[in-house]
């Protein structure tokens, strides 16, 4: 039986509504965060799904040193806190360094560990310790270089730091050069990961899964395939979807090649809700 992960009042796991984690990649302004979050919150409410706002205060793992980084820790967390309060929803953000865990845990309900950093012990321990202290959760994205079973190490590190309120996110696996693939056999294995207290719930990142890494100074992507992947993942039984979205993806400061328009993200939410409803009707 999958254990639950809580983010504020949202419970993610078996027997709970499908959760949607959605927002921009990097925070460009408080106002844009409000605009995107409001659209996603209302779309999820209309579909009967749970919603968690997502945005990054810093993007430290860009392809180029010239890429946009975001507003920074203090200003960015201030914006996220304001957006969270105005929308009345839980929020999540990613951290890249251990000393960011504590200030992030004071603001967000779910601390996100980036895929490339999912093995970093100091980062995981800091996130787990801060999450335990403030009653938060930790979402670890599976590294593109990791097998599903290897993610048990991240779960154990968090547990040893006192945090069992965890979730894992699938976002594709490297396949040669310039390509990510989604292994749905592996997705099933991730959802059945052996862990004390039961496997953590699993989120599926349908936008980052369409990345084409190494395409130049900016990562390429196939966002047209994100809806297909989202439908397949919900049908496979994932507990949450992760979507990056923007009113004008082409002008977005980060991940412009993979983000969905707001209209497209709303359609994914509606389709996901219909598939989840059909699955529940068959149980």
In short:
This protein is α/β, with parallel strands linked by helices. Helices cover 35% and strands 18% of the residues. It has helices at 30-47, 73-87, 101-105, 121-134, 152-160, 184-191, 226-236, 262-281, and strands at 5-7, 10-12, 19-23, 50-54, 91-94, 110-113, 137-141, 166-170, 173-174, 180-181, 202-205, 211-212, 220-221, 240-244.
Map the helices and strands.
Blueprint: E1 5-7, E2 10-12, E3 19-23, H1 30-47, E4 50-54, H2 73-87, E5 91-94, H3 101-105, E6 110-113, H4 121-134, E7 137-141, H5 152-160, E8 166-170, E9 173-174, E10 180-181, H6 184-191, E11 202-205, E12 211-212, E13 220-221, H7 226-236, E14 240-244, H8 262-281
Parallel strand pairs: 3-4, 3-14, 4-5, 5-6, 6-7, 7-8, 8-11, 11-14
Antiparallel strand pairs: 1-2, 9-10, 12-13
Helix pairs in contact: 1-2, 1-8, 4-5, 7-8
């Amino acid at each position: 039986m999958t254990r639950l992960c809580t983010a504020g009042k949202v419970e993610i796991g078996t027997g709970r509504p499908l959760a949607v984690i959605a927002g921009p990649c990097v925070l460009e302004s408080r106002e844009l965060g409000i605009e995107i979050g409001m659209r996603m919150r209302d779309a999820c409410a209309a579909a009967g799904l749970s919603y968690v706002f997502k945005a990054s205060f810093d993007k430290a793992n860009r392809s180029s040193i010239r890429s946009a980084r975001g507003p920074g820790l203090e200003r960015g967390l201030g914006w996220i806190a304001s957006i969270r309060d105005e929308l009345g929803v839980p929020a999540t953000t990613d951290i890249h360094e251990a000393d960011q865990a504590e200030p992030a845990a004071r603001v967000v309900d779910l601390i996100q560990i980036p895929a490339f950093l999912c093995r970093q012990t100091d980062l995981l321990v800091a996130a787990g310790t801060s999450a335990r202290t403030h009653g938060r959760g930790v979402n670890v994205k599976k590294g593109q270089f990791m097998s599903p079973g290897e993610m048990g190490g991240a779960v154990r590190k968090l547990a040893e730091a006192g945090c069992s309120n965890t979730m894992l996110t699938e976002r594709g696996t490297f396949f040669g050069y310039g390509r990510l693939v989604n292994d749905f056999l592996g997705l099933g294995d991730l959802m059945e990961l052996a862990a004390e207290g039961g496997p953590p719930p699993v989120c599926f990142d349908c936008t980052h899964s369409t990345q084409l890494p190494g395409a130049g100074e900016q990562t390429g992507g196939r966002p047209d395939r994100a809806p297909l992947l989202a439908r397949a993942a919900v049908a496979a039984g994932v507990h949450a979807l992760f979507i990056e979205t923007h009113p004008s993806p082409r002008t977005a400061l980060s991940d412009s090649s993979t983000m969905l328009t707001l209209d497209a993200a709303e359609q994914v939410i509606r389709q996901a809700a219909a598939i989840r409803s059909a699955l529940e009707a068959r149980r």
